[in-house]
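Work through this protein:
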Amino acid sequence: MRVDAFDFALPQHNVAQHPLDPREAARLLHIEWRLRDRHVRDLPSLIDDRDLLVFNDTQVIPARLRGRRGNAGVELLLHEPLGRDRWRCFARPAKRLSAGDRIAIGDDLEAHVLDKLGGGEVEVELASAADVGAAIERHGIMPLPPYIKRGPGGDERDRRDYQTIFAARPGAVAAPTASLHVTETLLAAMLARGARQVRLTLHVGAGTFLPVKVADTRAHAMHAERYEVSDDAAAILAAHRRQSGRVFAFGTTVLRTLETIYEGGTYRPGGGRTDIFLQPGVPVRSIDRLLTNFHLPRSTLFMLVAAIGGLERMRRAYAHAVRAGYRFFSYGDACLLERAAR
C-alpha cells in the first residue's frame, strides 16, 4: 500500500506533553461497529472472566547520554546491547565521530567508539571506575519521543511518568505506552472482574521513533526488537485460547510479540528478535482485543491498528478523536479495538 494512505491531519495542540493525573482520567475511544467515547476508568466494566490481560514488563532505561569529545558536544542514544557494556547507539553528530574516539559523560563515565555503522549509528563500549549501569542511571536522561518537548536536561518527573507499573526487566528505550494508563487500583479492579493476567517482555527499540521514508509499505524495513516469552506464559496463553477465551493485548508491543510466537493455533515460548510488520492485508490471529494509544500519521503503528480495525474505519476513528480533542501519542488518551470474531 502507499504510505500516504496512512496520513492524516493532526493539530499540534492534540499532542500530549504530560500524562493526566490520575491516569484513569484519560479518555478511551472504544472502536466496535460504532465509536463510543469512554474513559480509561471504564475498562473494568468492559472486562469479564473471558479476558486474559497481557502486559509487557520491559523497563525503560535512561538511555540518552550527553557528553563531550574534546570541546564538542555529543549525544548518544543507546538502543541495543551487544555484550557486556557494549552498545549500538544513535549518535549526534555521528559524522564527526571516528573509531577510537572517547566521549566523556560526567566525571565517571566514558564511551569508547569502536565502530561507525552508518545511518547515524555507532558501536561504543562504556567504561566507568564504578558500576557502568549505576553510572548510566546517574547521567542518563529518559529517552522521550521527539514530539514530547523538554529542555536539555529533561524533566525528572519523566523518570516516574514514563515507566509502567509492570516495569521489571531493564532494556527498553521507549515505554510500552498503553500500560502507562494502568495503575495498581485499575489493575485490581480489572482482576476483580474475573480476568487473569500474564506478562511477557519486548524491549522497545529506538526504531519505533524512526519515520517511514518510502512511498510503498512493501519497501519499509522494520528495526528488530528483542523479546522473551516464558514457558509458563505461553502455556497460559495456549490454554486460554483453547477454552475460547479472549486474549486482551495491552499495547502494540504485546501484539507484535504474540503475533511473532503464534503458530499453528498456539503460542511458542522462547526469546529472539522480531521485525514483524503488521499492516492491512496481514491477518492478526493471536489476540482478540487491543488497548493502544493514538499513533503518528504515516507510522508503522498506525498501519498496525489499521490491520486490526481496517484502514477506513481507523481513519474515521482518528478523525473523530481529533475533532473531539483526544490527546495523542505516548502521554495521551487510549483506544480499545475489538477484532472481528474468529
Remarks:
- Residues 64-140 form a domain with the Thrombin, subunit H fold (CATH 2.40.10.240).
